[in-house]
């Protein structure tokens, strides 16, 4: 399985570079990468991460459609980078908490996971982050920074060293991505 982890890592780097640039082509890598990691995470016993990659496949299709549609059906303008509307925070928090607790319960009750709380935390926050990315909200980067830092440590613990290195790099680039998107958002608004 090591070759799959290395391939997933390489595609993950391409994905991150495309996300940093706010390129619509990130969604192609966003379909391939989770297809690979479904196998990697299942074998490692990271069942929530296994499950989230099924969600990532579906979310990548959704994101591709949303970004292709752009600013509107009548307009050919690209979907702009914006701030998350304040009215979205309460529903996003509710979805996060429900997913976090529900996934943790499933992992504790039905699997042999030895990291159910961390696995469910990163999975629930990734659900939120992916949806925010599909909507092109700049604050999606904050969700990814937290997910990436926690995953980096979790994957070291699970001896997925290539994947851990990828998430360590994700953490650093996510910080730069946040500032890049803020800059792009500023230029788009002019």
TrEMBL record:
Keywords assigned by UniProt, alphabetized: Cell membrane, Membrane, Transmembrane, Transmembrane helix, Transport
Cell compartment(s), UniProt: Cell membrane
Protein name in the entry: Nicotinamide riboside transporter PnuC
Function: Required for nicotinamide riboside transport across the inner membrane.
InterPro entries: NMN_transpt_PnuC
Family, per entry: Belongs to the nicotinamide ribonucleoside (NR) uptake permease (TC 4.B.1) family.
Single Gene Ontology MF annotation: nicotinamide riboside transmembrane transporter activity
Pfam family, any one: NMN_transporter
PANTHER family (UniProt xref): NICOTINAMIDE RIBOSIDE TRANSPORTER PNUC
GO CC terms of this entry: plasma membrane
Bilayer-spanning residue ranges: 24-44, 50-68, 89-108, 114-134, 141-158, 164-181
GN (gene name): pnuC
């Amino acid at each position: 399985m090591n070759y799959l982890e290395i391939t997933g890592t390489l595609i993950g780097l391409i994905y991150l570079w495309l996300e940093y640039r706010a390129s619509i082509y990130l969604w192609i890598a966003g379909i391939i990468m989770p297809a690979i990691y479904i196998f990697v995470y299942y074998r490692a016993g990271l069942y929530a991460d296994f499950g989230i990659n099924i969600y990532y496949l579906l979310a990548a299709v959704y994101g591709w459609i949303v970004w292709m549609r752009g600013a509107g059906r009548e307009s050919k303008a690209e979907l702009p980078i914006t701030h998350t509307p304040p009215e979205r925070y309460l529903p996003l928090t509710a979805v996060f908490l429900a997913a976090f607790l529900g996934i943790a319960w499933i992992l504790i009750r039905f699997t042999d996971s030895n990291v159910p709380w961390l696995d469910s935390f990163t999975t629930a926050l990734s659900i939120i982050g992916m949806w925010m990315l599909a909507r092109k909200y700049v604050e999606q980067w904050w969700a990814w920074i937290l997910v990436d830092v926690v995953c980096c440590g979790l994957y070291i613990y699970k001896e997925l060293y290539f994947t851990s290195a990828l998430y360590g790099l994700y953490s650093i680039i996510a910080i730069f991505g946040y500032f890049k998107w803020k800059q792009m958002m500023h230029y788009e608004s002019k």
